[in-house]
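pasting for ref
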Amino acid sequence: MKPSHWISTPRIFIIDGSITDCHLMSNILQRAGCKVYFTIDGREGLISVLEAPPQCLILDATLPGTSGYAICRHIRAVDQHYTIPIIIVSAKNTPLDQKYSLRMGANSFLAKPISEEALLQTVKRLLPGFSLAAVVQTPPPFTSQPDTSETLMEKYALIPHRLNEDGILLRRNPFASSNFVSDKHLRRLYAVINGRRNVQELAEMVQLDPQTTLKLLKTLWQQQQIAFHDRNQQPLKELSLLDNIERNE
């Protein structure tokens, strides 16, 4: 594996079984000037890393169908010179977990829930040529007023509706065929959708910022679990509003 090179915009890849954690870490790193890609699929992530090595890899220790440790060990078998810094993240935070992560080839270990400051400082340490000093800041809490731009306000006014309610009642879990079944934030958000609350109101109920809530709703929309209506309760035929929600407009 050839060492990957970068000048001012490091490319960071996240492999995490929680779509919520992917979005939260991605938001933090994007605000810091990084280019971020992620997947919740361990095998897909491993292939991507081997084909296009990132400047830094953030790897969840526990992944559906595989182990983050196994992925780390596989990468180190190919990348014997440690050209890719690897950060293991885990909900388990014992000395044994930390030592095992380092023994498997990780450069650093972070406990979940991830702290913004800890994440940025770790990336800064592993990528010394990239300065994060100007962007280490805490985002506003979910109760703060959202961006007042007309486009963003329009997005936050969208009203999601659950689809196939009859079928859902007959199923043990509405995400039984989805990779997001283990994501508590996503399931909690889905549970409070009632066809009347808009994005801003849902964000307050699940205690997430509106931008992250909108991204999670887009995931549900892509999984054909919900549809969107405007503030007049008219179904949206054109969903161009969702095309660029990764940006802070």
